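Two proteins, back to back. First:
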Amino acid sequence: MAIETTDHSAPIDHVFRTVAEDRRRLARRFRAASPVASLAQSACFALLIAVPALGVGIPTIVAFVAVVGALVGIEMLFRRRLGMAIDLPAGWRSWVAGFALAVVVLGLAVTSMILAVIGQGGWIALTAGAGLVVSFLGVTGYDRAYAADVIRPFSDAPRGGLPLADAQRFRVSAALRPLTSARVDVLAETLGHREDDAQPSVVHEHLTALERRGLVSITRADAAPAASLTKAGRREFDGRLAAAVASAGAATA
């Protein structure tokens, strides 16, 4: 389904299949960018677990602040490389994976503190090593869960050919919905277009139309503008998605 300058209605099942392919491209981009970041984040988690070995004092505080700063820096570099910002899980599986990772890292950090208090600092290195392995598996698992959650809502196209109005703008909103923001050129690639076919300008046209309705916010602070759904845009998309599924279900009942 090509992005066009005018929005035509399209059958719901066709729109869902197209959006599913868009989100597969998004998931592939996310997973391709994540391995190096996952390893770096895991190393930072292991260092956080190891910090109590320094004891109580200024060096511990400095080390803790440095590791947290490194985590923030890694996240910023990851977002720059990805061309997207992702702040929240995309579904219950990635929520569970993220929560489990946080609990394990926190538990190992508390264990490390207890070992430091009772004078068993030698065991902290083993705890930190375990944290490195568990964190890497956890971060990798979260990335996989997030990618799967991004695709899952559109993995099964509703049966029936009822038309969905403004199908192209629905498609743009569907690509933005699981993200905090995305560069317009990256969004165009997610929608299956290349920079050399002049399609990003058409995507921007759709974004501008959605912005006029208060559904999209476009940041034009630099040469690479970024777009995000507003709260109204998220509510509107979720409502249209639910209505489309209900309509298709009623038509096949």
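And the second protein:
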Amino acid sequence: MKLLILDAGHCLSLALAREANRRTDTELVIEEGLELSSEQLEALAPDALVIPPLARPIRATPAAVTAHAEAVERCMEACRAAGVPLVWCVSDQLYEDGFAEPIDEHVIPRPRDESLRRLVATGDRIRAEYPQHLIVRLGPLFALEGSHAWLGELIDTLVVGEELRGESDVTCCPTSADAVAMALIGMLQQQHCGAGAWGSYHLAGTEPISVYTFISVVRTQLATRLEGRGDHRELGSVKALHHHHDHPLRRVLNCRRVLEVFGVHQKPWRLEVGRMLDAWCQANEACRPEREDETRP
């Protein structure tokens, strides 16, 4: 199976590349940006086109959101002309106000924010005009590297002693980019074999948690690992923010359909965070204890 991935520097694109490298049944072609012509698509002839999400669209400028939406629509038109399935990953932030209960796939986001509505309009157009699509709604992605790599950004801030802030009244399901990459390739392999299960799916980590608590867990686990390696640096602090005093916001995705249709299980974000922190410590020279022979005169 050959996949064409756009936005090469995105943390999800990098995760897809790592997952494909571990397999013998998947070939990736990765393009730098989001622009793609029909001629390019026909020449590459992939089995699917994958577009990573615009991370944190609530904080993005209206121009950036509009540019992303328009690029996705042009890709959809090219896919339709070439008969190539389209996979578009989107942020859970499109559910701007959240819901008291876990959000099912059939619930179309209806945000108040004009920029977010532009992304929803793109999703509506894809559903109406091109059946061969997967719209995959994701919880907040975290990874160690790449653009929008939330965990990497948190670590970088903590190790230089700067303060981190996170909402204590916003509950979400942090989602490992590596877990998403594994799930997407598995889903597309089944589609490639004739599953025909097109439509919208939710994919997120287990255990809903506030943004503030997630950041605090990252800080605690990082501190534990550093101390175990003899590194006693002072990490930055974590401060709780309160933006929804009257009505705490819950943005929790119900991922039952992706399990029922594709057999994809959600990965516990705590295990993924721990694994990534271990990898960061092993890769980061500052985290390694000095070897005995280096301490001798």
